[in-house]
Amino acid sequence: xTKKKTKPARPAKLRPDVAETAFRVMQEAxxxxxxxxxxGERSDEEKHPxxxxxxxxGGEKGGKARATRLTADQRSESAxxxxxxxxxxxxxxxxx
Length: 96
Prior knowledge:
By secondary structure, this protein is mostly helical.
């Protein structure tokens, strides 16, 4: 007798759909739900620990993986582009 193949477990939905978002916004607007903070303003206790771990893993290996795929000329071009963007003078720093 052959075993029935099962589907792999699907990860939990990461983002709500448009209707859920609209409902939440409406609830916040009329004061029936507490206002949600943007991700940058959340404390570490408010962040989901598994999501934080996944984000750290991706950040740790992302740059290294990209660097190994690029040729030396591509890395050089990328570095020049980043440097010119960094020092272009369009930011908030003034030179005088």
